[in-house]
Specification:
8 helices, elongated
Length: 365
């Protein structure tokens, strides 16, 4: 990674950390015995709206942390390769120095050869010309070795300088990650305090709704699985795709029906839980789920919605089943019919969503 790219990553991470602020929590009043259902519903809606905002902010911070980790992994690999390059340059330098030392030593032992000696030792003009030619070539060879030593030394110095800078950038990224983690922990703490202070009636209603939504999602997933099983494993008809059968050059190992495989993988996780940074086997965050779905077809994508955005190069309205769908800080899998599968939040888990909430789509295949 270049110096400019490192600085952009650090700046982006810092911006994310500083831009995230906690939602002001306005805790509902304790319910009274004669509280109407309409009042309780309004309280419930307000509580859910505020919790959703907190979860959204937490997810954005979590995805920023995921991206930091992706960048740090890349940094570590770059540093490892740089160390190998430096060792190779050291070997080249030692060899060049040995060659130069040997040549200088040989010239010193023989006492060197002066221009006068070359002239006096030549018996005729032709021999003089030959002697002058070979003497010049020997000098050029010495100069070439010296230049080589200087070039290798300069390359080595540049490598060392680059490595030092990369280490500094890594420290900056680690510092940013720690700051983001601290903010995430604080937000999680506030969320927990908020939930614990909710009126018992509201919490009970929310839990009932959560369980009902979870059961409905699982029922939909099971119905989709059975329908696909009866349709030769297809969750949709791949012949309807405009680019059916086309594969990227670097994904030649992916089967023709890979989109159905991705959808099947995502569907199998519906009803599972959500946790920031999780990547399975039953609990995921948003980019962890999409990473898993593509890993089942042999395609590795980074565990970061920011990195996965690079695969989403078309409008969400043009999404095809099996595509990744993206909006800032969040990703999901499009399954067709305007429906997505997403790792939503701690309260919703992995469930169905809507394509309309996303802005871009695409796939790494």
């Amino acid at each position: 990674m270049t110096r400019k790219m490192y600085k952009k990553v650090v700046a982006a991470m810092l911006t994310t950390s500083l831009s995230v602020c906690c939602v002001g929590l306005a805790l509902p009043q304790v319910a009274v015995a004669d509280e109407t259902s309409a009042t309780l519903k309004a309280k419930l809606d307000d509580a859910k709206a505020q919790l959703d905002k907190l979860y959204e902010q937490s997810e954005q911070v979590g995805e920023a942390l995921n991206e930091t980790q992706v960048q740090l992994d890349a940094t570590n690999k770059d540093i490892e390769q740089t160390n190998k390059d430096i060792e190779a340059k050291k070997a080249e330098l030692a060899e060049a120095q040995q060659t130069l030392s040997g040549r200088v030593a040989a010239n010193y032992k023989s006492g060197g050869t002066s221009m006068l000696e070359i002239i006096l030792s030549s018996s005729n003009f032709e021999e003089l010309a030959n002697n002058l030619y070979y003497a010049q070539k020997a000098n050029e060879s010495d100069e070439k070795v010296i230049d080589q030593v200087k070039t290798v030394q300069a390359e080595l110095d540049a490598k060392q300088s680059q490595l030092t800078e990369q280490k500094q950038q890594q420290e900056d990224l680690l510092s940013t990650q720690k700051a983001q983690q601290a903010q995430l922990e604080e937000q999680s703490k506030k969320t927990e305090e908020y939930v614990n202070n909710l009126d018992q009636q509201v919490k009970q209603k929310m839990e009932e709704e959560r369980k009902a939504a979870e059961a409905e999602a699982r029922a939909r997933a099971e119905a989709a699985r059975r329908a696909a099983e009866a349709n030769n494993g297809n969750y949709f008809d791949p012949s309807l795709l405009s680019n059916s059968g086309k594969k990227a050059p670097n994904a030649s190992h992916v089967g023709e029906n890979w989109r159905n495989s991705v959808i099947a993988a995502a569907t199998s996780k519906v009803g599972g839980g959500y946790r920031l940074g999780a990547e399975g086997p039953t609990i995921y965050d948003c980019s962890g789920l999409t990473q898993y779905a593509y890993r089942t077809i042999g395609i590795y994508i980074p565990h970061s919605s920011a990195s996965q955005a690079a695969y989403c190069n078309k409008p969400a309205s043009q999404a095809q089943p099996g595509d990744i769908v993206w909006r800032p800080g969040h990703v999901g899998i499009y399954i067709g019919g305007g429906t997505t599968i997403e790792a939503m939040s701690p309260s919703q888990g992995i469930t169905y969503g809507s394509l309309g909430s996303f802005s871009r789509s695409g796939s790494p295949v």
